[in-house]
Amino acid sequence: MNKFLLNIKGDKPLWVIFILLASFSFLPVYSAASNLAYLYGDGNTFNYLFKHFIHLSLGFLIMYMVHKVPYRYFKGISILMIPVILVLLAYTIFQPSITDSMTNSSRWIRIPILGFGFQPSTLASIIILIYVARYLSKIKDKIITFSQTIIPLWIPVFLTIMLILPANFSTTAILFSMVMLLCFLGGYPIKYLIGILASAVILFSIFILSVKAYPDLFPNRVDTWKSRIENFIDSKETKANYQIEKAKIAIATGGIKGLGPGKSVQKNFLPQSSSDFIFAIIIEEFGLIGGLTLMSLYLWFLFRIIIISNKSASVFGSLLAIALGIPIVFQALVNMAVAVQLFPVTGQPLPLISSGGTSIWMTCLAIGIIQSVRIGSEVAENEIDENNPLEILKETI
What is the rounded distance in angstroms from the CA atom of residue 310 to the CA atom of residue 322? Predict the structure, then answer.
């Protein structure tokens, strides 16, 4: 055990944040899962708790293995994985429709032997962000033209986004926003980014018009997006507004200190209480204090990401930490904003807190790569110290 702990390297505060979030997640997941247990199971919530434990354990294993891999290897891995994710996303869209009352089947691939679902769009988001970070580090401080970047940079990005869009608009919007932010931070010319943004708006408009003209192509998707925006603006008695109303009741009931662990009432009425709206259950049970503490952990996570990025010995490492770290914090803030009706319903889980395997595993994968960046920085710092005459003189004295 001691040998295993000694092999854990990287940013220690980041490990602490992961442990705190993962440990805390058991309380709201166990509490909120009672709704699922009675609606879709035999009333036994322990099964959901055990499943969450397995997901986190596997996530930690992924994070541990990945953080041992030198981050520079992910440059080549991202190139090799681009065709793989495109095939997976295409298969996900065009797979035979499966009626599932709890999930949108067009977002998931069912793993035959293991028996669980996997959402390729989350893996695709990580791969494409690594790929963009690799390309930006490659052209750093070089004079480029827009035409030179179309095929190597924007074609893979737009193909990925176009394959995610029909089934998951919120993930598409977050991914595109993160790519634009990463390009801005990576020094990509702003005038080109404006052109890309304009192109994205045009392509999205064409997609909307095409779906309207051929409604059988992607049934109900545009109508769902439209209704969510309308429900956000207008108060109507719909399923989406029912969720928001129950979430607001839970938040109001929680007050400052909350009702206490496991004492939520709205978990019995709020759909997706263990995933999309788990933040409302957290505030109901742990109050404003619990909600602000959780938000502080995510902000602390962001602070560590910035530090790791600044300490990186290479441009790629610096961009990689930003590319994989900021989306986690952004997704957390979106989830919280939906619960308090500052944002339309999106279906984005709360990272490392909400139940669900794919979200946990991909978040752990991203954190593992970030830890690899930090380890690379530590190695570079040690090499600099060893070659520094002042440090050698200190050791001699």
Answer: 10
Q: 392 — alpha (psi -120 to 50), left (phi > 0) or beta? A: alpha
- Cα 386 to Cα 341, 372, 375: the distances in Å are 54, 21, 17
Q: Is residue 396 part of a domain?
A: no
Per DSSP bridges, beta strands 109-110 and 117-118 are antiparallel
The rounded mean pLDDT for the chain is 84
Residues 266 and 297 sit within 8 Å (Cβ to Cβ): no
CB atoms within 10 A of CB 358: 20
Strand partners, 117: 110
Rg (CA), the chain: 22
- 228 within domain boundaries: yes
Across 8-23, average pLDDT: 92
- φ, ψ at 177 (rounded to 5°): -65, -40
Task: Indicate whether 332 belongs to any domain.
Answer: yes
Write out the two tokens for 107: 């977002």
- Give me the domain span that covers residue 35: 2-381
Lowest mean pLDDT among 38-52, 148-162, 379-393: 379-393
In this prediction, residues 192-202 reach a mean pLDDT of 94
Per DSSP, 142 falls in state: -
Contact 35, 262 (CB under 8 A): no
| Helices of type H across the chain | 2-6, 12-40, 46-67, 73-94, 120-138, 146-149, 155-164, 169-185, 190-213, 221-233, 239-254, 278-311, 315-339, 357-387, 389-396
The values of phi and psi at residue 171, to 5°, are -65, -40
Domain total in the chain? 1
- How does pLDDT run across 228-272, given as a tens digit for each residue? 666 666 655 555 577 888 888 989 998 898 899 888 888 888 777
Residue 25 lies in a domain: yes
Residue 356 has what pLDDT?
A: 81
Overall pTM surpassing 0.90 (yes/no) = no
